[in-house]
């Protein structure tokens, strides 16, 4: 089956950016395409087609993850096997609870120093609003693993990291999934993946993203950038949804919710890239698509010189517009999540999206001025997010397009 439902082009005249809604045959396989200007005039969904765009290939992962979660929800769960001798008078439960506490501490530390301040909100939600009893936030173990993975290529020891080291990290990931954790943080993740239908694929893909960061510092077009964004950030959405859970009342298809989760990761990473243009360029990295830069009459040198010109402003307008489209796509899925997850996800979405407003407020100077969302704005986002989180799954199907 092949076909196209709709294709529109938008963005500033100088930098048009296309967005498509591409049909994939039957009602249960429709999806949104926000990738680039490639018009799928006629495409085959065959998995073996080598000419597929990154978006199509990533969508296959989404379908697979959605299918797996449906399957595993029905079947058995892996059970944790802590093979290592346990010292002291602890039960496995005590150790795990300490392990999750440690994960919480790590995330809190990052939340202090980094932009993504979802952790304190998650604490508030879990401790005061959703469960009066203190309960474990299982996504913390995933977040710590993501941060540790990112630290391998971005942290203080990054210069010593080789592809071999990443291979060892991947081997260790397999151990985690097989119930053989190496340390406390791994033990928490082992526990999480034994309790929830989390698949190893997005984790492996994130490591692939780190491999890419070791060998690649330029992206020819948005298709290449999209794949990178999937690896390092879209994967986070796919890892988190099986733990966060889908609202029991949701009538949306699992695929469409995973697609929204993927979109949130991509939107966040695009925003990250737009905010860090100057900083990344000084480290020898230009993530912005080379063909789009050239089309706008810009080059790497313009980025290194770092002068905000009208050409740059216009180029940035297009890039910001595309990132916002991914946020819009993500929005469609948040209401379908379990009630406990909606507030933190809305909060992180609203907070992160404001970084794009901050870039505009800086008159597009993302070379030397860091776009940042002030404390008051952050604070005001919380009740706004709370209000949105009150809205649960839509009763009709028009919003999410497909049925389970
Ligand atoms: C239906 C629907 C919308 C569901 C929501 C799904 C969901 C929870 C999506 C999460 C999306 C998300 C937070 C993605 C992270 C994107 C990101 C910022 C990735 C960064 C990668 C590397 O970037 P870079 O090196 O360029 O940047 P730095 O200079 O290093 O900052 C990351 C750093 C990867 C590491 C990812 C994280 C630390 C986030 C992990 C977070 C979770 C697992 C918890 C998510 C929970 C909430 C409530 C958002
Ligand atoms: Mn990083």
Which of globular, elongated, flat, extended, rod-shaped describes the shape? globular
How is the quaternary structure best described?
A: single chain
How much of the residues is beta strand, in percent? under 5%
| Integer-rounded radius of gyration | 21 Å
Protein structure class: mainly alpha
Bound molecules: the ligand CC(C)=CCC/C(C)=C/CC/C(C)=C/CC/C(C)=C/[C@@H]1[C@@H](COP(=O)(O)OP(=O)(O)O)[C@]1(C)CC/C=C(\C)CC/C=C(\C)CCC=C(C)C, manganese (II) ion
Give, in order, the helices and strands: EEHHHHHHHHHHHHHHH
Strand order of the largest sheet: 1-2
Q: What's the N-to-C terminus distance? A: 21 Å
Report helical residue fraction: 55-70%
Regions with little confidence, pLDDT below 50 for 5+ residues? 1-48, 76-90
**How many alpha or pi helices?**
15
- Tell how many strands the DSSP assignment holds: 2
Query: What characterizes the major β-sheet?
Result: 2 strands, antiparallel
Average pLDDT metric = 81
GO biological process, one term: carotenoid biosynthetic process
Keywords: Carotenoid biosynthesis, Isoprene biosynthesis, Transferase
Family: Belongs to the phytoene/squalene synthase family.
Pathway: Carotenoid biosynthesis; phytoene biosynthesis; all-trans-phytoene from geranylgeranyl diphosphate: step 1/1
